[in-house]
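Following the same procedure, sequence and fold were stored together, as reproduced here:

>
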Amino acid sequence: MSSERGPRRGLMFVISSPSGAGKTSLSRQLVANHSALSLSVSCTTRGPRPGEVEGREYYFVDRPAFDGMVAADNFLEWAEVHEHRYGTPRAPVMASLEAGTDVLFDIDWQGAMTVAAEAPNDVVRVFILPPSMVDLRRRLFARAQDSAEVIERRLERAYGEIRMWAEYDYVIVNDDFDSAYAELAHIYHAERLKRIRNPWLNKLVPDLLSQSS
């Protein structure tokens, strides 16, 4: 959508999946290929993993600071996942939507439901499924980021997360990254064209109808 046509309303593009199903890789690729889309950076109480950078993947804060932000209603959504808390700062997201910039959320189903309740007209929810639980286990062990104990907890949690699939607008099975990415990009492009996100049409259409043939 060209900005020359008029101002548009940004959207919140929410992607969720069990750990290891590929949502982070798909999210980063989508953001890298679309200049109008930015990744929402959450706050978390967990420590950084190898390669993670403050302000890029997360804002790393301690539990008292996080709880203070909760008390001040500074989060659009927040949840406790795998013994750590994660929250999306409200102010930068809403400013982006007003400016016509889209925001991508890499969050779990709890956060997705909260965001959708807060701003139902602005949210698009996509759930990423693994092709099988065997494949999910293989991916978690292959990325070598967590201990075997943590991976087993993630796999146990995955069953409950997958049961929430029907709460999402779209579902993609990530059995091939390129195919899954193409489907994700198609969804994003179509949602940007929705009438509700392009208020400039309210002026264009009457102008067209007032013109003689």
